[in-house]
Specification:
17% of the residues are buried. Strands 2, 3, 5, 8, 11, 14 and 15 form a 7-stranded mixed sheet that branches. The protein has a 6-stranded mixed sheet with strand order 21-18-17-25-28-27, with no helix packed on it. Strands 16-10-9-19-20 form a 5-stranded mixed sheet, with no helix packed on it. It is an alpha+beta fold and 535 residues long. It has 3 helices and 29 strands. Among the domains are: 101 residues; 97 residues, Immunoglobulin-like (Sandwich), CATH 2.60.40. Strand 23 and strand 24 form a beta hairpin.
Length: 535
C-alpha cells in the first residue's frame, strides 16, 4: 500500500511539473505614442524567446497610469494568447528605499573621515604652536652657541614647514570630502522629495507551438498626458498669403519618458473599450424649439459654454479674450484629426510642456485698415481669413507677427467663429489719424424749458505709404434712451449711421501721400434743469 501511495505521489508531481507554466520577465521598447487632448496611447514592441507549451510573459517597467480596459496584445502567429491581465508592481518603492539607505551609509562614512581629518589638523596645529613657543623661550632665557642656534633654527624651520604642508593637504582633503557629502545629500534630497511611482505590469498567458524568437506588440492608453495647439500667424505683406505655423504643446507625467519615439497628435477621445456599447430606449417627447435652428446665445462661465434657449442676434463687441466676436455663431461638429510628426521626438515625464511644430499652412486673406480715432490715435491692420476652416484650426492661443515683428497674442475659438476670421496685426504708423473738436462749431441755445447744444469733430486721415490703401473709420453719436432727450445728426461726411447703435462707419480710399478730412456734427436737446454728458 505504501509503495502504491509513493508511486501515486511521484506521478502526481511529474504531472504538476509537466503542466507548470514558465514565467519570463520581458521588457519592450516604446515605438509610437499617440497623444490625445486627454491621455495617450503607447505602442510597444518586444522580441521574445518563446518556449514550446504554456508560458507567462511578464511585461514590466510600464506606466502606473494604464487604463486596464485599453490593453491590447498582438503576436506574430507563433503562439496563442490565452489571457491578458494588468497588475501594479510596488517593488520600485523597495528599490528606492535601498538606494536611500546606501546613500545614507556613504554620507555617514564620509562624515567620519571628515572628523578624522579635522582631528589630525587640530593635532598638527598644536605641534606648530608648541614649536613656536619653545623657539621663543630658548632664545630669551639663555645664550645659545652659534652652531646650536643654527641647528635649532634648521630643525624648527624644517618641522614647521613639514607640519604646515601636512595641515594644508589635510584641509584640502576635508574640502573634497565635504563636496562629495553635498553631492550625496543632493541625491538624497531628490529621492526623498520624489515619491517613487509603482510600475505597471502586464501578464500575458500564451501557448506556443514551438521554440522560437517571436515578435510581441502591446498597446495601451495612459492618463496624465495631453496636448493643446497654439499658432504663429505671420503677415508677409499685402498680396502675400498668411503663414500659419501649428504648434503642439505636449505635457506628460506618466512615469515613463518617451525617448526618440514616433509621435502622433490626435483630437480623438480616449474612451476606448473592448466592450461594444449598448443602445438604450429612444423615448420621444417635446423639445425646446429655437426660432432659428443653429443660432444660440453662448456665454463663457468658468471656461464652459452656457447655452441659453433664446435667439442670438448680435454679440457685444466687448469681450475678455482680446479678439473680435462675430455677429452670429457657427456651431460646428468636431471631427477627429491626426497629425504625424515626421521626426522622432523625446518627451520627458516631468510635467513640463514640450512644444513642437507639426504643420505649416499658407492661406489667402484680405487686408484692410481700421481705426477708432475716438479711442485711439492709431490705424490698425486687420486680416480677414474667409476660408479659415481650410487651415484646420483648433481652439488655441495665436501669436501674431507683422513680418518679423511680434505684435501680440490673440485667441482662436472655433465655436464662436463666423465665416470670416478677423485678426489684428497691430498698428501701422505709416497711416495717421487725428480726431479734434471743432471749437467754432460748438453752440448752446435755450429753447423754452429745453437746452440745445451742438458739437462737431474733424477727423483727419493721411496715407504716408507709397501705394494706395483702403481704411475703415468708426465713430459714434450718442443714442437717447429717454423721450425728453433728442439727438439730431447734422453732418456725417458720407458716413453710414446705424441708428440703433449710433455707430458711424466711413470706408475711404487714400492714394499715396493723400489726406482726407471727415466731419461729424450733431446736436442734443434736453431739459435745461438737467445735466447730460453727450460727448
Amino acid at each position: 500500500m505504501k509503495k502504491i501511495l509513493l508511486l501515486f505521489c511521484i506521478f502526481g508531481a511529474i504531472h504538476i511539473v509537466s503542466f507548470a507554466q514558465v514565467e519570463k520577465e520581458i521588457s519592450a521598447s516604446i515605438k509610437k505614442v499617440t497623444v490625445f487632448t486627454s491621455g495617450a496611447q503607447i505602442d510597444m514592441e518586444a522580441s521574445v524567446p518563446i518556449l514550446q507549451g504554456p508560458m507567462i510573459l511578464k511585461l514590466t517597467g510600464l506606466s502606473p497610469y494604464i487604463k486596464p480596459e485599453s490593453v491590447r496584445v498582438d503576436g506574430d502567429g507563433a503562439f496563442t494568447i490565452l489571457n491578458v491581465q494588468h497588475q501594479t508592481d510596488y517593488t520600485k518603492e523597495l528599490e528606492r528605499n535601498k538606494q536611500i539607505e546606501a546613500l545614507q551609509a556613504k554620507v555617514e562614512a564620509l562624515n567620519l573621515k571628515v572628523e578624522d581629518e579635522n582631528m589630525w589638523i587640530k593635532v598638527l596645529n598644536q605641534k606648530i604652536e608648541f614649536l613656536n613657543v619653545n623657539k621663543d623661550i630658548a632664545g630669551k632665557e639663555q645664550v645659545i652657541p652659534t652652531e646650536t642656534f643654527k641647528t635649532l633654527h634648521e630643525y624648527y624651520g624644517t618641522s614647521i614647514e613639514t607640519l604646515s604642508f601636512e595641515v594644508l593637504k589635510r584641509q584640502r582633503d576635508v574640502n573634497e570630502l565635504n563636496k562629495n557629502i553635498n553631492k550625496l545629500n543632493q541625491q538624497l534630497s531628490a529621492l526623498n522629495s520624489k515619491a517613487e511611482l509603482p510600475g505597471g505590469v502586464i501578464l500575458i498567458s500564451i501557448d506556443a507551438k514551438q521554440n522560437k524568437t517571436s515578435k510581441l506588440k502591446c498597446s495601451y492608453v495612459v492618463k496624465n498626458a495631453s496636448w493643446f495647439p497654439s499658432y504663429d500667424i505671420r503677415f508677409g505683406g499685402i498680396g502675400n498669403p498668411l503663414t500659419i505655423t501649428h504648434k503642439a504643446n505636449i505635457t506628460q507625467n506618466t512615469g515613463i519618458d518617451w525617448k526618440d519615439v514616433d509621435l502622433v497628435l490626435s483630437t480623438a477621445q480616449t474612451n476606448v473599450s473592448a466592450q461594444i456599447p449598448k443602445l438604450g430606449i429612444f423615448f420621444l417627447g417635446y423639445a425646446n424649439q429655437y426660432s432659428k435652428p443653429g443660432l444660440m446665445k453662448m456665454s463663457v462661465v468658468d471656461g464652459d459654454f452656457d447655452m441659453k434657449s433664446e435667439e442670438m442676434t448680435e454679440l457685444s463687441a466687448d469681450n475678455s479674450f482680446g479678439y473680435s466676436q462675430p455677429s452670429a455663431i457657427t456651431v460646428k461638429n468636431e471631427t477627429t484629426n491626426e497629425y504625424v510628426i515626421n521626426v522622432p521626438q523625446t518627451v520627458l515625464s516631468n510635467n513640463t510642456t514640450t512644444t513642437i511644430q507639426y504643420r505649416e499652412a499658407k492661406i489667402d486673406a484680405s487686408f484692410e485698415y481700421q481705426s477708432v480715432p475716438k479711442l485711439s490715435a492709431h490705424v490698425f491692420l486687420i486680416g480677414k481669413i474667409h476660408d479659415w476652416y481650410k487651415a484646420e484650426l483648433l481652439d488655441g492661443d495665436a501669436n501674431i507677427y507683422l513680418e518679423n515683428s511680434y505684435v501680440g497674442k490673440s485667441y482662436i475659438n472655433t465655436q464662436e467663429l463666423s465665416d470670416t476670421l478677423e485678426l489684428s496685426f497691430g498698428v501701422d504708423n505709416n497711416i495717421s489719424v487725428k480726431r479734434e473738436k471743432i471749437s467754432d462749431f460748438t453752440t448752446r441755445q435755450f429753447i423754452g424749458p429745453n437746452k440745445k447744444e451742438s458739437v462737431g469733430y474733424k477727423i483727419t486721415v493721411r496715407n504716408n505709404k507709397s501705394y494706395a490703401v483702403s481704411t475703415t473709420i468708426t465713430d459714434q453719436i450718442p443714442v437717447s434712451t429717454l423721450k425728453e432727450i433728442e439727438v439730431e445728426t447734422l453732418e456725417l461726411s458720407g458716413g453710414v449711421l446705424d441708428a440703433s447703435t449710433g455707430f458711424i462707419e466711413w470706408n475711404i480710399s487714400l492714394n499715396p501721400n493723400e489726406t482726407k478730412e471727415l466731419q461729424l456734427k450733431y446736436s442734443v436737446k434736453y431739459p435745461k434743469d438737467k445735466k447730460v454728458v453727450f460727448e
